[in-house]
Amino acid sequence: MSILICGGAGYIGSHTVKELIGNYEVVVLDNLTTGFPVLLDEKATFIHGDLGDEETLDRVFQEHSIEAVFHFAANSLVGESVAQPLKYYENNVGSTITLLKKMVEYGVDKFIFSSTAATYGIPDSAIITEENPVRPINPYGRSKLMVERILADTAKAHDFKYVILRYFNAAGAHASGEIGESHDPESHLIPIILQHLLGESEKISVFGTDYETPDGTCIRDYVHVTDLANAHILAYEGLVKGKVENEIFNLGNGFGYSVKEVIGLCEQISGKKAAVEWTERRPGDPAVLVASSKKIQDILGWTPKYNLEEMIQSAWAWHSKSYNRQI
Ligand SMILES: O=c1ccn([C@@H]2O[C@H](COP(=O)(O)OP(=O)(O)O[C@H]3O[C@H](CO)[C@H](O)[C@H](O)[C@H]3O)[C@@H](O)[C@H]2O)c(=O)[nH]1
């Protein structure tokens, strides 16, 4: 039996494939629009295709004995989702419906879904639990929340069970140094800072300095991508063993760092100084997002192993090695 990884050539998907290989057969489905061939693991079977395409899915489910699906494939940029909402609803919601229809048709009943802290919107408590109200403030968050609702309905109607993982800010690179975080164009804070420190850009921009936070910049909860990857495997094994069914879990380290603090740590680890431009707020950004991950710790025994310094160290090792490579 194999696990199907939709989006296995992307950042979090590729790190999860690395953790699965050796213990599980892995099939990766990716259309390579935001993923990179260089992140693909040669020990996994790769299918280049779109999960919104029924014929591709027929082929995947007919040719492979799929036991479960981990679904990472999505557009995930808050700013872009505000400018191009229909792209987000079409890809993140529409294509997922096609995938779910085919899973039901072929009797594949286990689903691990990549959701996001963006479903909470502007939280009314400093630390966010799964009980917090979900009021997303951008189309990206709304698209993920819509899928969460669709999963609940699907599980009521069909032989189908799921775990939803709401990630906070994924960061860091694999310990092997073989894979790491990259987007094209780069959009995420830590790679933007590290690429700048490697001389790829003249300056970095900090979006907003007037938030209600101690230093005025946004606070986020960063969680190592390998810790996220391991949470998927625990969730899947929990479904198999009947320990969990149709649950939602936050994934974060429980500590908030401001944009200024992240820049400071990157400077410290790289030994280089950043040129910073202080600019306007970016639409769709809440001031503070920090997770309580107590629920997944209690139920599945997940504990994050890496702190922010280690995330940046691993990311710096990967970027220093690979920034010249066309990825
Ligand atoms: O050049 C930059 C890039 C980012 N930021 C700031 O740095 C923080 C982190 O920004 P990222 O773009 O790295 O991450 P987000 O918090 O916007 O988004 C992340 O968390 C979200 C959940 O809140 C979603 O899951 C999303 O996919 C994921 O990338 C934000 O305050 C952002 O405004 C800057 O100041 N300058």
TrEMBL record:
Catalytic activity: UDP-alpha-D-glucose = UDP-alpha-D-galactose
Any single Pfam family the record assigns to this protein: Epimerase
Domain NAD-dependent epimerase/dehydratase: start-end pairs: 3-252
Single GO BP term: galactose metabolic process
Documented EC number(s): 5.1.3.2
Pathway the protein takes part in: Carbohydrate metabolism; galactose metabolism
The UniProt record lists the keyword Isomerase: yes
Subunit record text: Homodimer.
Family: Belongs to the NAD(P)-dependent epimerase/dehydratase family.
Protein's UniProt name: UDP-glucose 4-epimerase
Organism this protein belongs to: Planococcus massiliensis
Gene: galE_1
